[in-house]
Write a structure and sequence with these properties.
The complex is a heterodimer of chains A (about 425) and B (about 300). With about 425 residues, chain A is of the alpha/beta class. In chain A, about 50% of the residues lie in helices and about 15% in strands. Chain A contains 19 helices and 15 strands. The chains are: A alpha/beta (about 425), B mainly alpha (about 300).
């Protein structure tokens, strides 16, 4: 009895090892995160199935790996355990971390022909800023986004504003916000002017303000930050003033997840959030809404965001080649258009916007074009070596200033000192 | 004659122990030892191997303001959750131990929070706390005309808001233990006391509560462990923010080890947590054990 159980166990182990070994030889494993509502996971599955049908020699195993955070944690853990995926979609800002961990290879070695090089140049430059370093391309833009301003046209009309014009500058946003903030008889606010969510990762939307004020948060080498730049301090002061001085935004930390809902409920007349929410807002807003670029101060500006494709070390030559081919296929116009329409992510190549599918979509739904047009003013998202840690420090400083625990200048100065201590060894 | 026999028994003994031991070593002892070892080295990165730092990580921990913040947060969290959830558990157990209509329904209602996964619970409470249109704001706004509140987004209230969720989740679980203990107390004791003319409070304070002491010790140990172990809801509710106001030790360990990928420093923090928990456990057994049993 015992003996037979033992034998079965051995057989089962041997079997699982052999399938594992053969899986390594023919399969392509691909991790992807889902960060927005809608049909993201289904669409990825549909696309990989379509690719597998066209290419019977490649078998793609698309693994849903949770949030962005979970996906990078899984990919790093799997790599350390000697079983890395061949391909993964991970935040573009994790590029330096993945290089530092020595887990990824650049695409350049597999893109040798003239045609391939032209393909890389076909992506919007704003998206490539977070994808290239030291002259090499480590990431290929896929589910990329950028924040935009959504406004409630009915609330604008009610406040006596032109419902078709969004605020173009910081001053206008305050001025409109004052008109849009409504109070009830007992003095409680029933509708705020604007909502810039700040929970979890306040740095992203704040970076929009910083760029608009002419500041760059980190250098392209990812080893120096400029958190205590006076322009950054000024931008943070403006963000704090929105709720303390001008009283057009709710005080304290504002939740990301509840932001679209607050907009639908009429709790706020304007909101800043990702274009990834476009399809959600379109389906659920019970009123007419508009989408605009973020307002300008000394210039227009916005960060980019979202995920890139990365090639992992430890794959065979054939696997990596197959992975590159798959990436080229899935970012090609038809597939990319399908993905953009399903999610609201910004198609990362100009040619996608020229397809009939996209033209029909944008003719019907013009707000989808705003994000693309804003790319001209967009800059790289904050990204450094030890990115999560440096960004974490920055987030804490922003939260301390937003909640009034520290003044902006002190908070940012402390954050810069901490970031310097971490990044010194990478210079 | 005896030699080989003993040897065979010895082999049998070890073979019987082997399966459990393999798992115990693989998942408990070896990781614990490597954690302690790692805490003396720097974090290896792809291009740079680990260096021996001696007590460097520990010095860094003592200088780390975030560590101290989450440490005090955690003590406050323990102080906020343990007494309240135990007191609530006793009150609920006493109530549902009485003969009342719909008793099993009330028992079930009290136990429900325990059955729900913490992540799901956090998502529900997230809606309760939402400023403006959340449940609490709708109630306080309707009844008292209070303005919108931002419990989770304010450093002064974020941790307390999390304590409330934890107490709500835990009290029902502890109630089950008290309920079992209450039913084991002989009714004759209560009857004898009533004949002597003791009031309800005296009966509770002089008879019921002392007889519940062994359960209280058990529940106490569990509550202390839980106050360092339950962090799932923080990921959903506040993500440790604002500015680490609601981060606890274990949450910080996760953040350092699996977000910042500073595994060595994460190991150091783990050792600190381990020492703290061992001290608490020893203390509890040492101080309570003599007073627990009714004589």
């Amino acid at each position: 009895m015992l003996k037979s159980t033992f034998l079965k166990a051995v057989a089962a182990t041997a079997l699982s090892f052999s399938t594992w070994a053969s899986a390594q030889a023919v399969d392509l494993q691909f991790y992807f995160p889902v960060a927005v509502g809608g049909k993201a996971a289904e669409t990825i599955q549909e696309l990989t199935d379509a690719y597998a049908a066209q290419n019977p020699d490649v078998k793609i195993d698309a693994v849903y790996a949770g949030s962005y955070q979970d996906t990078v944690a899984k990919a790093i853990t799997a790599s350390r355990g000697g079983n890395p995926p061949q391909l993964s979609v991970i935040l573009s800002v994790d590029m330096f971390t993945l290089i530092d961990e020595d887990l990824i290879v650049p695409f350049d070695d597999y893109l040798s022909t003239q045609e391939d090089k032209a393909w890389v140049d076909g992506f919007y430059p704003a998206f490539m800023e977070n994808s290239q370093t030291g002259g090499k391309t480590y990431g290929i833009p896929f589910q990329r986004s950028t924040p935009v301003l959504y406004w409630n046209k009915e609330a604008f009309k009610e406040a006596g504003l032109n419902p078709d014009v969004a605020p173009q500058t910081w001053d206008e946003m305050v001025e409109f916000g004052r008109k849009l903030t409504k109070k009830d008889a007992s003095g409680n606010v029933t509708q705020w002017g604007v909502r810039i969510p700040s929970s979890g990762f306040p740095y992203w939307l704040f970076q929009g303000l910083a760029i608009e004020n002419g500041a760059i948060l980190a250098n392209a080498e990812g080893n120096k930050t400029h958190f205590d730049d006076p322009k950054v301090v000024e931008a943070l002061q403006y963000l704090v003033d929105l709720s303390t001085k001008y009283e057009v935004m709710a005080p304290g930390i504002i939740e990301w997840g509840a932001t679209p809902k607050a907009f639908f409920e009429g709790q706020t007349a304007m909101m800043w959030t990702s274009t990834g929410n476009l399809t959600n807002v379109r389906n659920n807003a019970p009123f007419d809404f508009g989408v605009a670029m973020l307002p300008a101060n000394v210039q227009r500006g916005a960060p980019t965001g979202g995920g890139n494709f990365y090639l992992f070390k430890g794959a065979s030559e054939e696997q990596t080649k197959a992975a590159v081919k798959f990436v080229q296929w899935i970012t090609a116009p038809e597939q990319s258009a399908k993905w953009t329409i399903a999610t609201g992510y910004v198609a990362p190549r100009a040619e996608t916007w020229e397809t009939e599918t996209m033209k029909a979509y944008t003719a019907d739904f013009a707000p989808a074009l705003v994000a693309r047009d804003q790319l001209e003013f967009a800059k790289a998202e904050l990204s450094t070596y030890q990115n999560q840690r440096v960004t974490g420090i920055f987030n804490d400083a922003l939260a301390a200033a937003i909640t009034g625990k520290k003044d902006p200048a002190t908070a940012l100065k402390e954050a810069q000192a901490q970031a310097d201590a971490i990044l010194a060894e990478y210079r | 004659m005896r030699g080989p026999n003993i040897k065979r028994e010895w082999i049998y003994g070890w073979l019987l122990l082997l399966p459990a031991m393999v798992f115990l070593f693989a998942f408990t002892h070896i990781p614990a030892i490597t954690t302690v070892l790692n805490s003396f080295f720097s974090t290896p990165r792809g291009r740079r191997p680990a260096k021996f730092l001696g007590l460097g990580n520990y010095e860094r921990m003592l200088d780390d303001p975030v560590f101290w913040k989450v440490f005090w947060n955690n003590l406050w969290f323990a102080l906020g959750t343990i007494p309240v959830s135990i007191a609530l558990a006793i009150v609920m157990a006493l109530w549902v131990n009485e003969k009342l209509t719909g008793r099993s329904f009330v028992r079930m209602a009290y136990f429900t929070p325990t059955v729900l996964p913490l992540i799901a619970v956090a998502n529900i409470w997230m809606f309760f706390y939402t400023p403006g249109f959340g449940l609490f704001d709708q109630i306080t706004g309707f009844l008292f005309g209070w303005p919108a509140s931002n419990y989770l987004g304010n450093p002064d209230t974020a941790l307390n808001a999390i304590i409330v969720v934890t107490v709500w989740k835990e009290a029902g679980f502890f109630m089950i233990f008290y309920l079992a203990a209450l039913q084991a107390i002989p009714v004759s004791l209560k009857e004898a006391a009533q004949i002597e003319g003791a009031g309800r409070w005296t009966i509770f304070w002089r008879i019921t509560f002392p007889l519940l002491m062994p359960t209280t010790l058990f529940v106490c140990v569990n509550a202390v462990i839980n106050s360092f172990r339950l962090v799932d809801h923080i990921f959903i509710l506040t993500d440790g923010g604002p500015d680490n106001a609601s981060a606890l030790l274990l949450f910080y360990i996760y953040e350092v080890a699996f977000r910042f990928w500073e595994t060595a420093y994460g190991a150091t923090l783990t050792v600190a947590l381990l020492v703290l928990l061992s001290l608490l456990a020893i203390g509890q057994f040492f101080f309570f054990d003599r007073k627990v049993h009714y004589k």
